[in-house]
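[job 0412] stage=complex_fold ligand=zinc ion status=START
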Amino acid sequence: MQLLQPLATKKPVLLSKKAALAAFFLFDRMDPMSHQVPAQSEASPSPVWAGLRGRCPHCGKGHLFAGFVEVAPSCDVCGQDFSKADSGDGPVIFIIMLASLIVLGSMLVIDTVYSPPMWLQMVIWMPVMTGIVLGMMRPFKGVLITLQFHHKAGQGKQADAAHKPDQDVSA
Ligand SMILES: [Zn+2]
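[job 0412] stage=complex_fold status=DONE, emitting structure tokens
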């Protein structure tokens, strides 16, 4: 904000809009962080670590999942409501891309080096692919949901934004 001040005073007419726009983006980006980080860092664990272990994004102790990839209705320790948690198709896209990269890359290398028959490649890689996808499903979904909670993404954030005071355009 203070960095923008000298720029704005030199050419007030031309730069004031740019400065206001920059201030808007800065404010928009920094404001939620300044409220969020101190409030959450007391109790809540790292969202990535909690997500990888399938733990509650709020307390880090309760279970996030009720089934293999089925999200529990609420935390069994702190009671955090998970009903709004929805990672959608997010994890699947990541996993398919990553697993394909790993498997296709390995297939190409092995084919070049050992040139085994295609059926052998299939026998090797189909279970590997399945294993990677199933193995990554839960941690990926967990991380996406805990990040969603950490950044208050989704409907909750849009509702908050509507209640925010006017953006600081005076700079
Ligand atoms: Zn909890």
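The chain has two domains: 1-41, 43-163.
[job 0412] exit 0
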